[in-house]
Structure formats: structure tokens, C-alpha cells
Description:
Helix 5 runs antiparallel to helix 6. The protein has one domain (about 10-135). It contains six helices and two strands, in the order E-H-H-H-H-H-E-H. By secondary structure, it is mainly alpha-helical.
Amino acid sequence: xxxxxxxxxxxxxxxxxxxxxxxxxxxxxxxxxxxxxxxxxxxxxxxxxxxxxxxxxxxxxxxxxxxxxxxxxxxxxxxxxxxxxxxxxxxxxxxxxxxxxxxxxxxxxxxxxxxxxxxxxxxxxxxxxxxxxxxxxxx
Length: 139
């Protein structure tokens, strides 16, 4: 049982900071893509999320988690956390602009609502109906 009650996929492989951020931000980006909207956080909003991370006063929202991942990735790779966050944000928006990926997200979301928890292998079976593993590399 996941303590916060959120549906989740367990057993996923580790991924780069950019890919992890894209995954976190893909849900909200997909909702916007359905109505043909594309947006990114304003710099002032992103600064606020980074300030929360710096002060260890962040929550569990997707943006807070993405800001934390960008900060850790920048520290580990001696990079720029804003550039890492923006790259993940851009990748998430690009991926969900594809109809096949939006269909995969929709079916995965439905399965998560019904089952509340899926393994990585179960999630991949759902996704592979629409996008073969590694197929997003051509996005």
C-alpha cells in the first residue's frame, strides 16, 4: 500500500534527471495537449520551486519533485539545474504532443485508477500497445 493513496507504477528502471522530470511533468502536459495548449512554468514559478527545495520546504507535487530532481542532477553532474528542468519540461511537452503517446497515457491512467498499483512490466505492456519500448527516442 502506498501511504499517500496515490496510484503508482512500481519497479521502474532508474533514468536520467531529464527523463525523470519529463515523466513527472507529462501528466499535466498531456492534459494541456488535449486542448492544444503548450506551456512551461514562468521563471518566477520555477524560482519558487527551487527556493522550496533549497530551504527543504517542498512538497510532493510534480513540480516540487521535478525541481528536486533537477537540483540533485545538477549537483551530481556539475550542471545547471534550470537547464536540466527546462530540458525535462520540453521533452515532456514534446512527447505528449504525439497522439500515440497521449493514448498510451490515457490507457495507463485508466489501468492505474482500476488497479491502484502496477508493476513496471504491467505498465510497459499497456504502453507497448501504442509506443514500442524506446520508440519515444524519435519524438
